[in-house]
Amino acid sequence: MWDAAKGPGKLQKEGEWNQVLVKIQGQLIWTWINGQIALDAAPLPTRSARGGIGFQRHGTPKYRDKVIEIKDVAIREL
Length: 78
Description:
Layout: H1 2-6, E1 20-25, E2 28-33, E3 36-43
Antiparallel strand pairs: 1-2, 2-3
């Protein structure tokens, strides 16, 4: 989802905390990065109907030395 969530330009700030808000309704996704809309009702690729949520760091050499920290996660049903 991250590639889709980034949207146009560089809304995320490297080396700083970034706020990511994601809304998924049916097969559509909205994302905001640091308060700016990145995706506005974009169609989702095929996803599981079970609603699994996960976080991952890419394992490619480009991201090998990157640290990902996640805080203040809230999930709610709409």
